[in-house]
Amino acid sequence: MEHAKNPPVESPYFTAAEAAAYLRLEESTLNAMRWRKEGPNWRKHGGKVVYHRDALDRWSRGRDSDPTVRNEPGANEDGDGARS
């Protein structure tokens, strides 16, 4: 009698490699950010670092740039493009 394989479990928890791919980062970048306490919130499950999808989304949303601020070459601190 042959045993059927269990279908993969749809999990909201990502490994570091999966989380990095989700965020379009290198895994080494995500790991370095974790050590510097700059990256998304993470957990340990059985000694393995995992990231919850909601934490990744929340962290990414916090990285939104302000569309009213322009960082153009030659722009002064006022952002009007005039040279000081």
Question: Could you walk me through the main structural features you see in this protein, from its secondary elements to its overall organization?
Answer:
This protein is α+β, with helices and mostly antiparallel strands and about 80 residues long. The chain has a domain of about 50 residues. The protein is about 30% helix and about 10% strand. It is built from 3 helices and 3 strands. Strands 1-3-2 form a 3-stranded antiparallel sheet. A hairpin with a 2-residue loop joins strand 2 and strand 3. It is elongated and about 60 Å long.
Fold blueprint:
Layout: E1 13-14, H1 16-23, H2 27-35, E2 43-45, E3 48-52, H3 53-61
Helix pairs in contact: 1-2
Helix content: 25-40%
Q: Give the neighbour order of strands across the main sheet.
A: 1-3-2
| Strand percent estimate | 5-15%
Secondary-structure element series: EHHEEH
Low-pLDDT ranges:
75-84
- Main beta-sheet annotation: 3 strands, antiparallel
The number of helical runs is 3
Number of strands: 3
Which class do the helix and strand fractions yield? Answer: alpha+beta
What does the average pLDDT come to? 84
**What value does the Rg take, in angstroms?**
20 Å
The termini sit apart by: 81 Å
Shape: elongated
Structure summarized in a few sentences:
By secondary structure, the chain is of the alpha+beta class. It has helices at 16-23, 27-35, 53-61, and strands at residues 13-14, 43-45, 48-52. Residues 75-84 have a biased composition (Acidic residues).
